[in-house]
Each structure stands twice: as C-alpha cells, then as structure tokens.
Amino acid sequence: MDGQNFENENNVTIDTTAAETVSEAEVTPAAEPVQETPVVEPVNNYQDYTANVQPQTIVEAPKAENKETNVLAIVSLVLGILSIVLGCCTGWVGALFGVGGIICAVFANKQGKTGLAKGGLICSIVGIVLGILITILAVVFSVAMIGSGAYGTY
Predict the structure, then answer these.
(1) 3-state secondary structure string, the chain?
(2) In angstroms, how far is CA 51 from the centroid of its own chain?
(3) Which of 93, 79, 90 is nearest to 123 (CA)?
(4) Residue 74's CB: how many other CB atoms inside 10 A?
(5) 26-41 confidence digits (pLDDT tens)
(6) How far lies 125's CA from each of 97, 118, 153, in Å?
(7) 77 Cβ neighbours under 8 A, 6+ residues apart
(8) Which range (15-29, 40-54, 91-105) has the least confidence?
(9) Which residues have CB under 8 Å from 70's CB, separation 6+?
(10) What does pTM read for this prediction?
(11) CA distance 64 to 113
C-alpha cells in the first residue's frame, strides 16, 4: 500500500508515503474515538390509561323532529307569570290574567302536551290564588280601617 493512508485496528492513521520508518511516537490518532452517551429518556410518572381504550364509533344522534312551538303554550306561560306579578301588586287584575292563562293552557294541552303549557297552567293557578288572597286582605284591611275610625273627619 505505497503512498496511501490507512487506519489500523486502533483507529490510528499511518502515513505510508514517508520514506523513513514511522516510530510509535510519531503515530497520531486520526480522530478520537467518540464515546456515545446513552440516551436517557425522561421519566414519565403518569400512567397511560389510554392503552386499553377501545376506538370509539361515531353514533349519529337521532334527528330531531321539526316540532313547531305551540303559541298557546307560550301565551299561557306569559299570562301565568304576569298573573303572579300582578296578583302580588294589585290582586284582582292578577286573577284575571290567571284565568286567561288557564284557558290558553287547556287549549294548548289539547293540541299536544308540552312543558310550556304545564308551566303556564301552574303559574296561572298560583297567580289566581295570590290575586284572590291579596284582594281579600285588601278588603279586610280597608274594612278594619273604616270601622276603627281611622278615616275620621278632619
């Protein structure tokens, strides 16, 4: 192998082109052997719960029927809420709205039972009861005031 460089088994490059004999001291290593550092993966302290998870299948939700909103049910609910509010404030006016709410709720239930109609019926009944109680209390209080002479002449 005249005129060539080669590496021996110790990864030492020997130049064969030199005319004189190469001594052990003149031999230079071509490259330091690279010591590979072991790759340490980061420690994961969390347990993998997804290993046994079955793939999920897509389930389509049943298509909602195109239900039309019952207008009478909405009207009965609105009248029922108004009957509660006005029953607390004015008494008999709330009872009138409650009667209208009950009528609308009954007709709405005949068309199809819905939660709105049931809510309107319950609110209307509560409004009528409050309206009647407030009216009775107002009459009793007025009679008591007149009977006690609180409305005396000035």
Answers:
(1) CCCCEEECCCCEEEECCCCCCCCHHHCEECCCCCCCCCCCCCCCCCCCCCCCCCCCCCCCCCCCCCCCCCHHHHHHHHHHHHHHHHHHHCCHHHHHHHHHHHHHHHHHHHHCCCHHHHHHHHHHHHHHHHHHHHHHHHHHHHHHHHHCCCCCCC
(2) 28
(3) 79
(4) 17
(5) 555 556 666 777 777 7
(6) 10, 11, 42
(7) 101, 116, 117, 119, 120, 123
(8) 15-29
(9) 108, 111, 112, 114, 116, 117
(10) 0.54
(11) 17
Segment 109-133 mean pLDDT: 92
Angstrom distance (rounded) from CA 81 to CA 130: 12
> CA 99 to CA 76: how far, in whole Å?
10
The angle formed by the CA atoms of residues 108, 110 and 115, to the nearest 5 degrees, is 50
Check residue 3 and give left, alpha or beta (phi > 0: left; psi -120 to 50: alpha): left
Q: Which of 131, 71, 72 is nearest to 97 (CA)?
A: 131
